[in-house]
Write the structure tokens for this entry.
Amino acid sequence: MLNFLQPWSLHFPVLLVLIPLLGGVLAPLLGRGSRGWAWAVLTMGFATLIAIEMLLAIRAGGAISYPLGGWPPPFGIELRVDMLSAIVALVVTSVSWIVTIYARRSVQMEIPGDRLGPFWAVWLLAITGLLGIVVSGDAFNVYVLLEISSLTIYGLIAMGRSRDRKALVSAFNYLILGSIGASFILIGIGLLYAHTGTLNMSDLHQRLQANDGGATVLTARAFLLVGLALKMALFPLHFWMPAAYSTAPSAVAGLLSATATKVGIYMAMRFLYTVLPTEGGTLTDPNIWLLGGCAGGAIFYGSIQASRQPSLSLLLGYSSVAQVGYIVLGLAVGHIDAMTGSILHLMFHALMKGGLFLCAGIFLYRLGTNDFTQLAGIGRRMPWTSAAVVLGGLGMIGIPGTAGFISKLHLLRGLFLADYPILAMLVLLGSAMAAIYTWRFVEIAYLKPVPEDAEEILEAPFDMLWPVWLLIGSSLWLGLNPAPVVEIATDAARALLGGGG
Amino acid sequence: MHDSGSRSHEMSESVVLRTIGGMLIPYILIFGFYVQMHGEIGPGGGFQAGVLVAAAFILHLLLFGRSGTDRWLPRWLVDLSMSLGVLLYAGTGVACMAMGGHFLDYSALDPTHPAEAEALGMTLVEAGVGLTVASVVLTIVRKVQGGTR
């Protein structure tokens, strides 16, 4: 551990929330220009450092519990970080750090100058909310922090209006649906509280396990499932997502695809396995088939839609619908390998899809659009960006050597071992369909001629290109050296299925 | 009074409203501060007080128009206090951590007099909440009044 962090090591869970919070409220005071951006980069770098140290501390010494205000749980509010939370926290901080580094030029182009200070404040506050959900050990605080992140994210999406007026509509749709989802989650938590009289997650789980309460808890489960499905954009409640991601400022789309839906999935894992009662550590059959059916629908529908979209942003949005399907499939069946695959896919998808959305943002920055009609022959005009898109796409398919292969391999093994061959077939089918939409980009970018009236354009500036390659490159590197990540993901999966961590 | 031209059409036409409203504002403010200071031992606290203080300024805004209020309470000050309130809250928590306690564990502020330290910590945190709530409520009303700009 770094020496200067030693005296603060006890406080890592709360620091993870405090650093972006303080960074966020200070950002608007810094004024115009690039200062807000530099401040955000600094803040997120520091938060990433904390997340890395916290992951190492948990790997060495097990889960960390932090009593806020010194009040012991279950009476006080507890922050609780186990392996799964530490992994998701690291994914959120590190990917949003890299996206922040990338974002300077594209944000300056897409956001009016007098809005830059507030923009970075809202950006950091959104990350604060997401990190808060991840470290919270208290069900009601999860809801509060969910509202913080949701409200800021609606604002971030709406800021796309200076590029595309439709951003206002998609932000409003997301506002309505997100609020319905959040209310459902609140009703679910309220019912659990009515039944048990506690809000602390591990306390809730113990009490519910001892007395699963019939109709009240069943109703709570139904509300929570629908609310969480809306928040993580699980088919058939996904429809806000592609529109929101394609009209948001391009850096925001990168940030959200890598963090917001991932935190939604984290909440689903947390509530289904460590709050609601389980049957010997797994879900009951109706739950598995409901989630598995939705996930299968997501994979099928998302991939089909992705291969017929008119622009790269929309393609990536629908591809995210499909990828959420894989992750939910793994978390539903409750087999250790499938859960490991699900957690791995959560990490790898954040890297790959984050990188891909940033590529879409680069096309937008250089061409003013990423409609496929304008991208003909782009492989020769912007070779580095296009190559990154192709490599990211290969990861989506799950070609051996990419990170996507490792996660899908675990997922498939888990599905076969848990005896769900139909769902395993869906994963294979979805991968084949990912090949179709990736090929579509290859065909347009490399095989079609450059339009004759096309203006001369340059490759993306280096300071936008290297964060993209860092994301895509690290997904390739993890595909070739998966051992340490697989180890921590297996730890997290085991803790989750063992009920609590 | 360089802005009197733009002020005239925002300001309330009625002398009665302007006079009586102007007389009410100090009392609303005092009641707001009372609720603020009362917060940690009785009903009240930063949220309620913040809304009351904001209500006083909103009344001022309705009676004397945007530029009239801006002379009493500059925009930059409102923007600043949104951040300052959160900083005060979180700063109190960080101070507790620096003194060896947990986040917001006020008794750590003064280990020899934990009861006084708790009161101090709570007062500071409530002040932060009040500052942020008042300035945010005022900002929301201003934005709604001013359209999308």
In short: Residues 1-9 of chain B have pLDDT under 50 and may be disordered. Residues 4-145 of chain B form one domain.
